[in-house]
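Design a sequence for this backbone.
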């Protein structure tokens, strides 16, 4: 049975983990906690959790040890979407085929929901007994997520995207550097964080995961650029042309669509090469890499 045959089960698995870790909707204040759950449980492709479980298969780790990592990454991703969609950022009213959190509730609630979700992800990593992690392992997991989501990662990349100088100083290298921070580091963390559960540490596996994660993370955002240009809201689950409407400089803006497809193919090859010595147990990572960097892959939209 291929990894593709296990995707549905893994998505159900992380949804169960998220239900476990998120406060019930009946928790006071009820409307606020309903917003938290709305932001996280509204569908999506669960790309980051899938990468966690695929990395676990490669490393020989049981899925039960990975549920907390998968949930924490998805919670951080959901918080970032709730904030990205706000009028002060991308001003989008549709996400995953339904109203964004600030439309379904209100702007202040969406901001606070994102704040609470970010903190909650670290609560999961700090308290999940099923991780079966030593204090040093748990510290590494917290550091990985903090670096991937903070000013040297996702938040910093978003700040660069909002900088008006970016549109006038755009080069392929500059845009890809922004992509690495905004999107790539969290994608890569989904592959490297499971490596932290190995004892003793396996530097070879970690280096392989880092190379694969970097190519995949940058390529995933480039694939999303093509989806934003070519796919309708009915297909992608979010407004078409959002980047152009918000004045965001993308890779297709810099080098054109045909060259963007060529660049995506190069990154797909780099991801495959990174796993060249990983053996058959890395089949899930290989499959996900091909799907995520296809430009219109099944895992690449509404992720």
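Sequence:
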């Amino acid at each position: 049975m291929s990894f593709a045959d296990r995707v549905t089960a893994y998505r159900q698995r992380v949804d169960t983990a998220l239900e476990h870790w998120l406060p019930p909707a009946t928790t006071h204040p009820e409307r606020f906690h309903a917003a938290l759950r709305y932001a996280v449980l509204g569908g999506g492709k669960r790309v980051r959790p899938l990468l966690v479980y695929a990395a676990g298969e490669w490393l020989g780790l049981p899925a039960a040890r990975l549920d907390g990592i998968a949930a924490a990454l998805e919670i951080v991703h959901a918080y970032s979407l709730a904030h990205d969609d706000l009028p002060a950022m991308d001003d989008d009213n549709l996400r995953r085929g339904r109203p964004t959190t600030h439309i379904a509730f209100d702007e202040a609630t969406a901001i606070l929901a994102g704040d609470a979700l970010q903190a909650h992800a670290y609560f999961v990593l700090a308290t999940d007994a099923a991780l079966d992690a030593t204090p040093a392992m748990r510290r590494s997991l917290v550091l990985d997520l903090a670096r991937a989501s903070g000013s040297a990662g996702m938040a910093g990349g978003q700040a660069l995207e909002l900088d008006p100088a970016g549109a006038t100083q755009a080069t392929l290298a500059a845009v890809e550097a922004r992509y690495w921070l905004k999107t790539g580091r969290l994608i890569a963390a989904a592959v490297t964080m499971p490596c932290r559960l190995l004892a003793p540490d396996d530097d070879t596996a970690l280096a392989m995961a880092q190379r694969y994660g970097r190519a995949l993370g940058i390529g995933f955002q480039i694939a999303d650029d093509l989806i934003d240009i070519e796919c309708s809201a009915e297909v992608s689950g979010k407004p078409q042309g959002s980047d152009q409407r918000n004045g965001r400089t993308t890779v297709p803006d810099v080098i054109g669509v045909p060259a963007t497809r060529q660049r995506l193919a190069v990154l797909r090859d780099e991801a495959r090469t990174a796993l060249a010595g990983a053996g058959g147990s890395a089949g899930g990572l290989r499959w996900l890499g091909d799907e995520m960097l296809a430009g219109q892959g099944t895992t690449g939209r509404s992720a």
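Strands lie at 94-95, 98-99.
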